[in-house]
Amino acid sequence: MDGINASNGWQALILTVVGAAVLKIVEWFLNRTKQKSDETTQYRQELRSDVELLKHQATEMQASLDSWREKYYETREELATVKAALQAAVEKSADDKATQAKINKENRP
């Protein structure tokens, strides 16, 4: 019987070592999966952060664009006003020159 008990003891020892090895393999696999999951979560958080930053920058750029667009239309309107005033001044000057020429022509002996 001692042979059977010794055999059972060795079997128990071998099964314990094999069981511990299998447990370590499973633990390693689960840790690896968790690590990948954690890395994926970290990448997602970084991407979300980047997206929020880009949204903020796009909002700022849109505000800047709106400001420049407003300045453009104000300047364009001012230019049209100045052109109209210049045209009126040129026409008045031409009329004044024509009138002056007419007066000079009439006053010549």
Number of strands: 0
Distance between the termini: 160 Å
Q: From N to C, what is the helix and strand string?
A: H
Look at the structure and give the mean pLDDT. 86
- Structural class call reads mainly alpha
Molecular shape = rod-shaped
Spans of at least 5 consecutive residues whose pLDDT stays below 50 are: none
Q: Measured on Cα atoms, how large is the radius of gyration?
A: 46 Å
Percentage beta strand? under 5%
Q: What about the largest sheet?
A: none
* Helicity range: over 70%
Question: How many helices does DSSP assign?
Answer: 1
Q: What can you tell me about this protein's structure?
A:
The mean pLDDT is 86. The chain is 97% helix and 0% strand. The longest helix is centred in the middle third of the chain and has 106 residues, at 2-107. It has 109 residues and is mainly α. The radius of gyration is 46 Å and the shape is rod-shaped. It is built from one helix and no strands.
Entry summary:
With 109 residues, this protein is mostly helical. Helix content is 97%, strand content 0%. It is built from 1 helix and no strands.
List keywords for this structure.
97% helix, 109 residues, mainly alpha, single chain, rod-shaped
Task: Give the topology.
Blueprint: H1 2-107
